[in-house]
Amino acid sequence: MKASRISLLLGAAFLMATSAIGPGFLTQTTVFTQQLAASFGFVILMSILLDIGAQLNVWRIITVSEKRAQDIANMVLPGLGYLVALLIVLGGLAFNIGNVAGAGLGLNVLFGISAETGALVSAIIAIGIFLVREAGKLMDRFAQFMGAVMIVLTLYVAVTSSPPVGEAVVKSFVPDTIDVLAIVTLVGGTVGGYITFAGGHRLLDAGIKGVSSLPEVTKSSVSGIAIASVMRIILFLAALGIVAQGLQLDPSNPPASVFQLAAGQVGYKIFGVVMWAAAITSVIGSAYTSVSFIRTFHEKIDRYHNWIIVGFIAVSTLVFVLVGRPVKILVLVGALNGLILPLTLGVMLIAAYRKNIVGDYKHPLWMTIFGLIVTITMAVMGVYTLVNELPKLFQ
C-alpha cells in the first residue's frame, strides 16, 4: 500500500478520534470516574463495543455507495437528507461554540490570556489550515500530531497519579454498578452527531471508496475508535489514581484538578496543552464535517466549501466572544444530538439493503444486528434525554 494512502487512512481515523476528544470528552470521563471509580472501566468497555458497531456500519455504507450520508438519506426517503443535514449543522455549530470556549480555556491556562482572546487566537489557527491549498492533507497531519501529543502527555499524568490498574481491569468485567446512562453518554460523545461521519466523509473526499477499499476502510474505522478509546482509558486511569487516594476534584473544572493533583503546576500546564489540543481539533473536525453535509446540495457550496468552513468557525467564535456559551441552546442541541445517531445509523442500515444505493454488495448480517442494537439503545436513551431536558428549558 502506498505511503500516501496509509497517511489518508490514518488521517481519517485521527480526524474522527480527535473530533470526539473535545472539552466535553475530558469532563465526562473525569466526572464519571469520580462517580463510578474503577467500575467506570465497564462503561468504557461497553461503549467501545457500541461505538465500533455504529462506526463499522456507517463508514462501510458510505464507502460502498460512494455517497455522503445526506445523499444516502435522500435516496432512502426524499427530503430526509435535508433534515439530517440541518440537525448536523445546528448541532455542529452549537457544539463548536463549546469547542472554541475550550480552546480559549486551554490558552488561558498556558499563557494567562483571557479565554476570549485565546478563542480568537485558536480560531485564526484553525481558519489558517483551511486557507492553504492542501487543506485536507494539513488537516490530517494536524489531527495526527495533536492526537499523539494528547495521548503522550495524559499518559505521563496517568503514571504520576499511580492508579490501581489491577482493580480497574477486574471491575471492567465485573463492575460494582452498571450505569446505562453513562454508557449512552459516552457512545453519544464518541460517535454521536457529526463525529461518526468525520472520517467516512474525509475518505470519500480523498477518493478512497468502492467495495475494493472495504478492508482498508474497516481498519481505519476501528482505528479511529481505538485512538479515542486509548485516550479515554488513559484519562480514566489518571482520574482513578486521584480518586483512589481520596483527593477531592474541583467541581468547576474536574479534568484540570486531576492533572494538577497528579503532577502539580507542571500537570496544570499539561492540562492546558491537552485541553487546547482536544478543543482545536474538535473545532476543525466539527466545521469540516458539518459543511460536508451540505456540499452536495449546490455546486457553489461545493466549490467554495473551504470558505464556508472558515465562516462556520468564525461564527462559532464570534458567538462565544460576544454572547458566551448559550447554555440553553447547548442543552437543547445536546438532547437533539442524542437522536441524530439512531436516525442516521438507522438510515444506513436500510440503505445497506437497497440495490439502487449499494448495488450488488451484501452487508454482513452480524453487522446489521450489531447496528440495530446500537440504533435501538441510542433511540430509547435519546428520547429519554429529550423528554427530561426539554421541560427544564421552559421552566
TrEMBL record:
InterPro entries, per the entry: NRAMP_fam
Record GO terms (molecular function): cadmium ion transmembrane transporter activity; manganese ion transmembrane transporter activity
GO annotation, biological process: iron ion transmembrane transport
Keywords tagged on the record: Membrane, Transmembrane, Transmembrane helix
Keyword Zinc-finger: no
Taxonomic superkingdom: Bacteria
Keyword Cytoplasm: no
Topology of this chain in the membrane: Multi-pass membrane protein
Any one Gene Ontology cellular component term annotated for this protein: plasma membrane
Main location class: membrane
Record-annotated membrane-spanning stretches: 36-54, 75-97, 109-130, 142-160, 180-204, 225-247, 267-294, 306-323, 329-353, 365-387
A Pfam family per the record: Nramp
Localisation: Membrane
PANTHER family documented for this protein: SOLUTE CARRIER PROTEIN FAMILY 11 MEMBER, TRANSPORTER PROTEIN
Protein name per UniProt: Divalent metal cation transporter
Species name: Brevibacillus aydinogluensis
